[in-house]
Amino acid sequence: MESKLLNILPMNSEINSDGHLIVGGCDLVELSEKHGTPLYVYDESTIRSMAELFTKEFTERYSNSRILYASKAYMNPSIAKLSIEHGLGIDIVSGGELAVAASVDFPADDIFFHGNNKSHSEVYEAIDYGVGQFVADSFYEIDMINELASNSNKVQKIMLRLSPGIDGHTHKKTTTGILDTKFGFSIETGDARKAIEYVLTCENLDLTGIHFHLGSPIFEMEPYDLAIRGVIEFLNPLIKNGFNMRDFSPGGGFAVGYTYEKSPPEIGEYAETIVKALTESCEEFDIPSPRLLVEPGRSIVARAGIAIYKVGAIKEIPGLRKYISVDGGMGDNIRPALYDSQYEVIVANKLNEKHTEEVRVVGKYCETGDILASSADLPVCDSGDLIVLPASGAYGMSMSSNYNLNPRPAVVMVSDGKSKVIRRRETYTDLMRCDEFE
Ligand code: LLP
Asked: Do 265 and 120 sit in the same domain of this protein?
């Protein structure tokens, strides 16, 4: 198989003699016959390898590092269990993500609760579960956590999310480190300093550290470097004044390979940049080295997951283009419609055939913008062929909807030639589960 394709498919993917794509030892043609389409397939060994790679690249350079999986990329009890097995903590942003973590007895200490507007009941549930840390995003939330911790006679560990005023040069809908963002306490406006000083006066809060997240995906090193150095410089007088910073997190946002043209940096390159910036700035200001918390989401699961669709209608507009319609689309992957995200497209049952046509791959939803790939070079496709979008494991299923009342796809985990359903396909009954009718 061509290396450019191998780089974006789950690790150890192969093509068999019939031209079928094999992932985790399973033939995707057989999997789609068995489980139907659209289908999401996750390769367990790729998730495990990415978890190990992150741990290795960071702890080798900075032993006091901890990797937290940003579960919004894709959360499911099976994925949460893999995180536990690999010693990853977890970043959650809702009561729902907490409930899934709790369903597999995720160690409470290893849970970090993020989000810009946690509700009263979410904070209550999290304190009750004993979550290790909240990452507070507003004065409103600081007061709420302090009050609820006090009601439970607890001193709750929290970190504060800052907005460092650094542009991560990513899509405007996923950039979060600039001044004009809903996330975090701005250093520039003075809120960050006020928030730190304020939390230090709250009796039921223990301020353990500082967090920021610049956005995602970030292909450059410089934003991490600038932000870490800038934040440590800002923190220096506060630390000298008694703030005991034990944790420091530059968030996640590490890029992955979606297309042949744009390769992501190595994880080691991110680790090198982050560790160097942190170590050097702590040395410069003579600050004790904190624990380093890193929060990859996309980069743990994106490559592991692929989406399989079946081709249905094919429409040719002479002299203009050919539309290939598949049985999923924006309901299971909103990313192209929302961010103009690009994906490669392959035909899982025709991998030995030459690519002779340029087509547009569209979904089945009643929206013109329901385009999965606006221009894809493919072999001649027939109805019934299997279209695969590699690198679909992050933010596809997790942002999925029931638009047009389509049931969400099944999700299968493959490993060593075996497959198991980790989420069954939704049924029409599921679609009406919450509706009240006589
Ligand atoms: N930490 C925090 C505080 C975050 O908000 C996020 C992502 C992450 C870590 C993980 O970022 P990652 O390593 O996955 O890039 N729906 C968008 C991405 C939104 C990310 C939201 N926050 C997409 O499909 O590209």
From this structure: yes
282 and 370 part of one domain: no
Final residue in a domain of this structure, among 298, 317, 339: 298
For the question of residue 434 being annotated catalytic, the response is: no
Q: Are residues 194 and 147 in the same domain?
A: yes
- Domain-embedded: residue 52: yes
Q: Which of 202, 282, 366, 381 is catalytic?
A: 366
Task: For residue 279, report the distance from its CA to the centre of ligand 1, in Å.
Answer: 25
- Whether 63 is in a domain gets the answer yes
Establish whether residue 263 lines the binding site of ligand 1, counting it when its CB lies within 6 angstroms of any ligand atom: no
Give me ligand 1 centre to Cα 152, in Å.
31
Q: Does the pLDDT value for residue 234 go beyond 90?
A: yes
Is 251 close to ligand 1, i.e. is its CB under 6 Å away?
yes
Q: Where are the alpha helices (DSSP H) in 86-221?
A: 95-103, 120-129, 139-151, 191-199
Regarding whether 183 and 113 lie in a shared domain, the answer is yes
- What's the average model confidence in pLDDT over 336-345? 97
Question: Which CATH number is 77's domain given?
Answer: 3.20.20.10
Average pLDDT in the 265-293 region?
98
Q: Are residues 53 and 9 in the same domain?
A: no
The type of residue at 277 is: A
Main-chain phi, psi angles of 380, to 5 degrees: -60, 125
Q: Cis link prior to 38 (omega < 30° from 0)?
A: yes
89 contact partners, CB below 8 Å, separation of at least 6:
66, 67, 68, 69, 83, 110, 111, 112, 132, 293
| Angle, CA of 92, 44 and 266, to the nearest 5° | 75
Task: Identify the three-state secondary structure at position 372.
Answer: strand
Atom of ligand 1 nearest to the CA of 161: 3
User: For ligand 1, is residue 91 a contact (CB within 6 Å)?
Assistant: yes
Q: Which atom of ligand 1 is nearest to the CA of 255?
A: 15
The parent domain of residue 420 ranges over 3-36+304-431
- What does DSSP assign to residue 340? -
CA of 423 to the centre of ligand 1 (A): 22
The closest of 401, 14, 292 to 5, measured between CA atoms, is 14
Q: Quickly tell me which residue has 């290893």 as its tokens.
A: 110
Of 267, 283, 298, the position where a domain reaches its end is: 298
Q: Which atom of ligand 1 is nearest to the CA of 211?
A: 3
pLDDT at 125: 97
Asked if residues 333 and 392 have their Cβ atoms less than 8 Å apart, the reply is: yes
pLDDT confidence of residue 436:
95
Total number of domains constituting the chain = 2
Residue 241, Ramachandran bin (φ over 0: left; ψ between -120 and 50: alpha; else beta): alpha
**Tokens 């306490």 belong to which residue?**
185
- The pLDDT of residue 176 is 82
Query: Is the model's pLDDT at 135 over the cut of 90?
Result: yes
